[in-house]
Design brief:
The protein is of the alpha+beta class. The chain is 37% helix and 20% strand. The strands form 4 sheets. The chain has an 8-stranded mixed sheet. The protein has a 5-stranded mixed sheet with strand order 15-14-16-17-18. Strands 2-4-3 form a 3-stranded antiparallel sheet.
């Protein structure tokens, strides 16, 4: 076979997925419910492009000649690097800074769209996926962060997940104080590795995280991930802060702020060592902010079964500077090994006071969160709350006589002008059965039939495919089915639109 005649194998790239009409409709219904909650809180929509200049996306990217680790990048015609956005937050920071003078402060917006990660794909892990974000830019203080957490809880309730989720809240300043104690205050690269290691706690467990805090970890495929290079005492201290019996949650519950903060007590697996005396001032400051948020949750009626303080939440991106939060679905599902596991996180976010300030000299506080749309849709499917079935197809006008296509097209136009979704069959018209099979495959509710006898008599045959399927299930004999013609009836030609409208309303 020559190169010219060689057929190309149709292949979907790894880490990407196609979406069917049913999936699109289901996600659309879910997004409408999320949008309604966002707008109830006073947020307005804004849209940013898929590409941004690479420098706009910031520190998430490695410093290389071709910044393609973690993102997809290319050079434009004037040799400037552009990258597909990896989230919706960095583009928002650019948009706000660029339109600073004309936007209200605080600026409350929501955004929906695809983001791209040039990472190793796996089960449930895609290189292209949809996010739905909400952010408040220009509001400092934990009150704005608390509102985000409450809105996340309300979104879950609106989607029918009440009692099946918890919003987990922590503060990066607590971990910042702990990392200062072990000497990482001025080592941003290793700090980021530490945070990303802790962010994998729900997936790898404490032993896996301890490996990533140390020299590194080899996964089941044999791939090795380099660790943060902490020694054993440093790693145990970080894990001790996370797992101590008097970590952030108990401190906040007991004392309501940093003034009476109790020292962390030892934990059997990860004891708090001498580093506790070296924690920086960010540590009690973070606890104080958590305390204020907790009082707001309590005042608004959000109990710990919906929103709770959890010291293991850190989030993986470097730009967070204060409170961080995640929505975790608490019901169990089976993983690819058949094991029962908690479904886990479907979204999260936090405060990022330094991101907009990359574009402007004055400090600009900001906070927000992002929902993973595809992952959340999968969760709703598992719980029976996805809320949309395969969308109904168009009414199909069958072509019984090829030389009468103008007449059939006139019927289609009448239906469309009445606001009814309709089409004329455009395939091979020689086989009546294949035309009906096509309508079935299109999930069509109705087909319209006009042969020469019907045309001469001024009538049409209307076939109710939904009723036909239901009736056919009770008929076992093919001849009996043909004789009964279930779901089929006769109308006058001039009654086409009204008859179809009536039948659709009944269906």
């Amino acid at each position: 076979m020559t190169e010219k005649t060689r057929l190309i194998t149709p292949r979907l790239p790894r880490g990407f997925e196609d979406r069917t009409p049913g999936e699109i409709a289901a996600v659309g219904a879910m997004i409408d419910k999320i949008k309604a909650v966002y707008e109830r809180y006073g947020f307005d929509p804004v849209e940013t492009p898929l590409f941004e200049y690479t420098e706009t996306l910031g520190k998430f990217l490695p410093d290389t000649d071709r910044p393609n680790a973690g993102v997809f990048s290319l050079q434009d015609d004037d040799e400037q690097w552009m990258s597909l956005r990896y989230d919706l937050t960095a583009p928002l920071a650019r948009y706000f800074a660029e339109n600073f003078e004309s936007l209200p402060k605080p600026y409350r917006s929501y955004r929906q769209g695809y983001v791209f990660r040039n990472e190793k794909p796996g089960p449930g892990r895609f290189r292209q996926f949809m996010q739905f974000d909400a952010d408040t830019v220009g509001a400092g203080g934990p009150e704005a962060d608390a509102e985000m957490c409450m809105m996340m809880a309300d979104v879950m309730d609106a989607l029918g997940l009440a009692g099946k989720y918890v919003v987990r809240v922590n503060n990066r300043k607590v971990l910042d104080g702990a990392m200062e104690a072990i000497g990482l205050a001025d080592d941003p690269d290793r700090r980021l590795v530490v945070m990303r290691a802790i962010d994998k706690l729900d997936r790898l467990g404490p032993d896996g995280v301890k490996l990533l805090l140390g020299a590194g970890r080899k996964d089941e495929s044999g791939d090795f991930t380099k660790g943060a290079g902490l020694d054993s005492k440093q790693a145990e201290f970080i894990l001790g802060v996370l797992f101590s019996s008097v970590a952030a949650e108990e401190n906040v519950n007991r004392i309501g702020g940093p003034e009476g903060a109790q020292p962390l007590r030892p934990n059997a697996s990860f004891p708090i060592n001498d580093y506790i005396s070296k924690v920086g001032p960010a540590f009690p400051e973070g606890l104080g902010e958590l305390s204020r948020m907790k009082s707001l949750f309590f005042a608004a009626g959000y109990n710990p079964d919906r929103i709770k303080i959890d010291p293991s939440v850190v989030r993986g991106l470097e730009y967070y500077t204060g409170p961080v939060f995640e929505i975790e679905l608490t019901f169990k599902v089976q993983n690819e090994k058949g094991q029962d596991v908690v479904f886990g996180s479907v979204g999260g976010g936090g405060r990022y006071d330094g991101l907009v300030s990359r574009f402007r000299r004055e400090p600009v506080p900001a906070t927000g969160f992002s929902i993973g749309v595809s992952r959340l849709a999968n969760a709703l499917k598992l719980t029976g709350n996805l809320g949309a079935t395969e969308p109904s197809g168009p009414v199909v006008v069958l072509v019984m006589d090829k030389d009468q296509t103008a007449s059939y097209q006139a019927m289609v136009s009448e239906l469309r002008n009445a606001g009814i979704r309709a089409e004329m069959f455009l395939g091979n018209t020689k086989n009546f059965g294949k035309q009906v099979a096509y309508a079935d495959k299109r999930n069509s509710p109705i087909v319209v039939i006009e042969g020469s006898q019907e045309r001469d008599s001024g009538i049409l045959q209307i076939k109710d495919l939904i009723a036909g399927k239901q009736a056919a299930s009770a008929i076992s004999d093919n001849a009996e089915w043909k004789a009964a013609r279930p779901g089929q009836f006769e109308i006058k030609r001039e009654d086409l639109v009204s008859a179809v409208q009536k039948l659709l309303s009944e269906q």
